[in-house]
Design brief:
- The structure holds 3 protein chains of 3 kinds.
- By secondary structure, chain A is an all-alpha fold.
- Chain A has one domain: Ferritin, core subunit, four-helix bundle (Ferritin, Up-down Bundle).
- Chain A is 63% helix and 0% strand.
- Chain A has helices spanning 9-32, 41-69, 75-80, 91-94, 100-121, 127-155, 159-172, 184-191, 202-215, 239-253.
- A 3-stranded antiparallel sheet of chain B has the order 2-1-3, covered by helices on one side.
- The radius of gyration of chain B is 21 Å and the shape is elongated.
- The relative contact order of chain C is 0.11.
- The N and C termini of chain C lie far apart (48 Å).
- Chain C is an all-alpha fold.
- Chain C is 68% helix and 2% strand.
- Classes of the chains: A mainly alpha, B alpha+beta, C mainly alpha.
- At the A-C interface, helix 1, helix 2, helix 3, helix 6 and helix 7 of A face helix 3, helix 4, helix 12 and helix 13 of C.
C-alpha cells in the first residue's frame, strides 16, 4: 500500500474489510485442516464448526468489499486471485496449525480479541456492515467460550498438556502485538463511525487473557518482548505462500470455469 | 474404574427443546469429559441445523430406566381404565354438531 | 443358555415388526451381528472423511469450500450417532475404534480409493452418497431400535450430500473441456467401486441370511444394487455422462437396467488391504487417535481435579 498517497474513504473501507476477511479466511483455512484429524470425534465436529464460521464470515466480508469496490468482482476474487504480499491477515493466523494446544491458544487469542472488537463494530454507522458483524458476533462469543474452556482444561490438566499449552502461548506471544496495529485505514474508519477503537479495549483484553492463563495455572509471557510487525502492509512468513498455493491452484488453473 | 472406562470420556444423554413451549426430546448421546464439555459438544453435534433452542445433558449412568420385565406391571394396568380417556364419554348430539 | 422358546419368541417379535431395544432379551448372535455391522458402518463414516477431506483446502470457490467442509463434518456426526447406537449394547467406543485401527474390523472399501481431482469429490457426493442413501433409507427400518433411529437421523442430514454432489457434477459436465474431462474421469474410476459398496452378490454373502431373518437389514445386496443402478443410469443420462459399462442395457421385461460383471477380484484385493490408499487411511486415523490421547487424558484429569475440589468444598 502506498502510504504517501492519501487514502479515500472508499479505499480505507475496502482495506478495512479485507483485513478482517483475510484474518478469518486464513485462520479458517488452518482450522479446517483439523477436519477428520481431531483428538476426539466430538471435538472434530467443534473444530469444523469454528472453521465454517470463520470462512463464512470471510466470505460475507469479501462479498461486501466487492460491493463497495463496485468493479464487478466477487468474494472469490479476493480469496483466490491475490498473492501473498497482497494479503493483509496477521502472521498470527497463518502459522501452521501445530498441535491441539497451539490451535486452541491461537483460537482463544483471536476470539477474545474479536469479542471486544465486535462489540464496537456491531454499532457501526454502516447498517449493512453492523448487521453482518452482529450476526458473526454470536458465533465469536461461542468460539471464545469453547476455546477458553479448553485453555483451562489443558492448562490445568496433566503435566504434558500444561507443558504444551504453555509452549503454545510462549510461541504465539510475539505475534500478538499486531492485534493492536493502527494506521490511517483504522483512523479513517474510526472517524467515519465504522471502525473499532482498538486501544480502548486493550487493557480489558489483556486482563481477560491474563486472568484466563492464571486460572489455567499457566504463566503469562512477557508483554514487553519483541513483537512482530508488518502483516497489515503485506509482510508475511513463508508459510502463507504454501497455504495459498494449495488453496488457489485449482481455481487459478481454470480461471474461466464456473466453480460456484 | 476399569482400564476401559479410563480410555473413554463418560457417556451423556442429550435432550433438546425443538421450539419454545415444546417438551424436550431425546436427541442421542455423546462422550464428554465434564458437564460444560457435554453442553458444548451437544451444541456442536446435535444442534448444527437449528434443531433446538434449549439443551439438557445428563450423565447416562444417572438415568434409571424401567426394564422389559417391568412392562407388564407398569403399563398394562392403564389399558383397562378407559375412563381416563375422553373417548369414554358420550356427548349430546347437539353439542357434537356445533363443535 | 438360549432356549428354543426364547429364540422363537424373539423371531415372533421381529416378524411382527417390533423394534428391539437395548435392555430387551436378544440372542447373543443378534447382538454380535448388530455390533459388527453397526460399527463397520460407523468406521466407514469416519474413514470416509479422509478422501473428501483431501480437497477441503483446495476447493475452487469459497462456497464449495463451505459445502465440502460441512459435508465432511456431517460424516463425523454420522459416525458418532452410529457409535452411540452400538454403545447401547454395552460395548465402548474405544474398544470399537481399537478394533479397526489395530485389529481386523472392516470399513467400506470405497474409501480406500484416492481422490485425484476435485471432480472426484463431486462424484463421491453423487454416486457414493447416493448408494449410501439407498442403504441407509432401508436401515432406518432395521429391527434394532437405536440403530434404526441413528440411520433415520443420518438420512435426514444426508440428502444434501447427494444433492450438492450431483449439482456440481452437472455443472462440470456442461463446463469447460477440462472440467468435462475431469468429471468423466472421476465417473470412470468410481463407477465400479460404487457398485461394490453394496457388498458381494447374494450367493456369496455369508452374513446376509441371518441379517435378513432378523431384519437387521431389509433387502439383499443385489436388490439394493439394482435399485441404485436403475436410478443412476437416468441421472447420468440427464447430464450427458457415460457410465463405463458397455453391457449396460434396459430390459423391457423386468423394467430394470442390466449391467456387466463387477470386477470382484479388485473388490477382494481392496478388502484384503491392497487398495491404493488402505495403508494411508489407517495410518492417518491412527495418527489422529494417538496424537489426541494427551488431549483426552488432560480433559479427564481436569474433570477429576474439579470434582475433587467440589467434594472438598461441600
Amino acid at each position: 500500500m502506498n502510504t504517501t498517497k492519501e487514502l479515500s474513504v472508499k479505499e480505507s473501507k475496502i482495506a478495512y474489510l479485507l483485513r478482517l476477511a483475510d484474518d478469518r479466511l486464513i485462520l479458517g483455512q488452518r482450522m479446517s485442516e483439523w477436519c477428520g484429524h481431531g483428538p476426539v470425534l466430538e471435538e472434530d465436529l467443534a473444530l469444523a464448526n469454528m472453521a465454517l464460521d470463520l470462512i463464512g464470515h470471510a466470505s460475507s466480508l469479501y462479498a461486501y468489499a466487492a460491493e463497495v469496490e463496485d468493479e464487478g468482482r466477487d468474494e472469490d476474487h479476493f480469496a483466490y486471485f491475490r498473492d501473498d504480499y497482497e494479503f493483509t491477515n496477521l502472521q498470527l493466523y497463518e502459522l501452521p496449525k501445530g498441535d491441539f494446544a497451539f490451535t486452541i491458544a491461537r483460537q482463544f487469542l483471536f476470539s477474545s480479541f474479536s469479542y471486544f472488537q465486535y462489540q464496537q463494530l456491531k454499532e457501526a454507522k454502516d447498517e449493512q456492515f453492523a448487521g453482518m458483524i452482529d450476526k458473526h458476533f454470536k458465533e465469536i462469543k461461542y468460539h471464545l467460550r469453547h476455546s477458553r474452556d479448553w485453555v483451562l482444561k489443558l492448562g490445568d490438566g496433566t503435566e504434558e498438556s500444561k507443558k504444551r499449552m504453555q509452549e503454545a502461548f510462549d510461541e504465539l506471544w510475539m505475534y500478538t502485538g499486531e492485534l493492536f496495529y493502527i494506521d490511517a485505514v483504522d483512523e479513517m474508519m474510526l472517524a467515519e463511525g465504522n471502525g473499532a477503537d482498538l486501544l480502548s479495549f486493550k487493557d480489558e483484553w489483556k486482563k481477560l487473557v491474563e486472568d484466563t492463563l492464571t486460572e489455567a495455572t499457566l504463566s503469562v509471557p512477557d508483554w514487553d518482548q519483541f513483537m512482530m510487525r508488518g502483516s497489515r502492509t503485506g509482510m508475511h512468513t513463508e508459510h502463507l505462500g504454501h497455504m495459498l498455493a494449495q488453496m488457489q491452484f485449482l481455481r487459478r488453473s481454470h480461471p474461466d470455469a464456473d466453480w460456484k | 474404574m476399569s482400564e476401559n472406562n479410563e480410555k473413554d470420556w463418560p457417556l451423556w444423554e442429550v435432550f433438546y427443546q425443538p421450539k419454545n413451549g415444546k417438551p424436550y426430546e431425546h436427541a442421542g448421546s455423546l462422550h464428554a469429559s465434564d458437564a460444560e464439555n457435554a453442553l458444548q459438544n451437544a451444541r456442536d453435534v446435535y444442534a448444527r441445523r437449528n434443531e433446538g433452542i434449549g439443551i439438557w445433558v445428563v450423565p447416562s449412568d444417572q438415568i434409571t430406566a424401567s426394564t422389559p420385565e417391568d412392562m407388564g406391571s407398569f403399563f398394562d394396568p392403564a389399558s383397562d381404565k378407559p375412563y381416563r380417556h375422553p373417548q369414554f364419554y358420550s356427548v349430546p348430539r347437539a353439542v357434537k354438531k356445533r363443535s | 443358555m438360549e432356549t428354543q422358546q426364547q429364540l422363537d419368541d424373539f423371531q415372533a417379535r421381529i416378524d411382527a415388526g417390533e423394534k428391539i431395544e437395548p435392555k430387551d432379551w436378544m440372542p447373543e448372535r443378534y447382538r454380535e451381528q448388530i455390533i459388527r455391522m453397526g460399527s463397520q458402518h460407523a468406521h466407514s463414516e469416519i474413514v470416509g472423511m479422509l478422501p473428501e477431506g483431501n480437497w477441503i483446502s483446495r476447493a475452487p470457490s469459497l462456497k464449495r469450500k463451505l459445502v465440502l467442509l460441512a459435508k465432511v463434518q456431517d460424516e463425523a456426526g454420522h459416525g458418532l450417532y452410529l457409535y452411540s447406537a452400538i454403545e447401547t449394547l454395552g460395548v465402548r467406543r474405544s474398544e470399537l475404534i481399537d478394533q479397526y485401527l489395530y485389529g481386523n474390523a472392516k470399513y467400506s472399501s470405497i474409501f480406500n480409493y484416492p481422490t485425484l481431482s476435485y471432480a472426484d469429490v463431486c462424484v463421491i457426493g453423487w454416486l457414493v452418497d447416493g448408494a449410501a442413501i439407498v442403504n441407509q433409507t432401508k436401515l432406518a427400518h432395521s429391527s434394532y431400535g437405536p440403530y434404526a433411529r441413528a440411520n433415520l437421523r443420518i438420512c435426514k442430514e444426508e440428502s444434501f450430500h447427494k444433492k450438492q454432489g450431483y449439482e456440481m457434477v452437472a455443472k462440470l459436465a456442461e463446463g469447460t473441456p477440462a472440467q468435462r474431462k475431469m468429471v468423466q474421469s472421476a465417473v470412470d474410476r468410481f463407477w465400479w467401486p460404487t457398485l461394490m459398496m453394496f457388498g458381494p452378490n447374494d450367493s456369496n454373502s455369508p452374513n446376509s441370511a441371518e441379517l435378513l431373518k432378523w431384519q437387521v437389514k431389509l433387502n439383499t445386496n443385489d436388490e439394493l444394487r439394482q435399485h441404485f443402478v436403475d436410478r443412476v443410469v437416468m441421472e447420468a443420462e440427464a447430464v450427458g455422462l457415460t457410465l463405463p459399462d458397455p453391457d449396460l442395457k434396459f430390459n423391457e421385461e423386468t423394467g430394470h437396467w442390466e449391467f456387466g460383471e463387477i470386477p470382484w477380484d479388485e473388490f477382494w484385493d481392496v478388502v484384503k488391504g491392497n487398495g491404493v490408499m488402505n495403508r494411508e487411511r489407517i495410518k492417518s486415523r491412527r495418527k489422529a487417535h494417538e496424537d489426541g490421547a494427551w488431549v483426552r487424558e488432560a480433559a479427564q484429569a481436569y474433570a477429576r481435579k474439579k470434582n475433587l475440589s467440589r467434594e472438598k468444598a461441600s
